[in-house]
């Protein structure tokens, strides 16, 4: 069942649930902003799928490019982390009334977006989850990712440019696994060597009395 959400509680609740699963003592909060985000902090930007309804002419549309921006800061001495978040609105192109509407985003895509955010926090501030993958949002509308209507997108109109980081670029994990494999091979070889050494000693111990009796 496709459940949609406009309110901000879903985002903050989901964030609290997922951040609690990290093994950390810092206290994190997520704030959903209506206005533009201040500068400062670690930038994290993503796109998701969602739908809109024009409050003026009731036209309904879906979008595969809804920008979501996060600004992440951690005050280590105070053990407090804050994530400021902004979801880009869009305006209707049918009536061109210019009213910026909030998107409806499914619970699943909220979960996915928060999962990506928490992964980013865990990697950046706690150097964990090196092998986690960023997840793609679910496109319920089965629409190909067509050209983004920048003229009716709040963030594009305000001149934000977006650079998507590759979804999976973690080469370090593979290196780590290889070096771990190398280490365990070396340990096994060492173990066999030690084993052979002990066997040789045992053979000597058995053969020595005979040798000495012959002499
Ligand atoms: Zn309209
Ligand atoms: Zn845009």
Automatic annotation (TrEMBL):
Molecular function via GO: olfactory receptor binding; zinc ion binding
Primary location class: membrane
Location in or out of the cell: Membrane
Keywords for this protein: Membrane, Metal-binding, Receptor, Transmembrane, Transmembrane helix, Zinc, Zinc-finger
Superkingdom in the source lineage: Eukaryota
Residue ranges annotated for the 3CxxC-type domain, each copy included: 47-159
Any Gene Ontology biological process: detection of chemical stimulus involved in sensory perception of bitter taste
InterPro entries for the chain: R-trans_p, ZAR1/RTP1-5-like_Znf-3CxxC
Protein name per Swiss-Prot or TrEMBL: Receptor (chemosensory) transporter protein 3 gene A gene 3 [provisional]
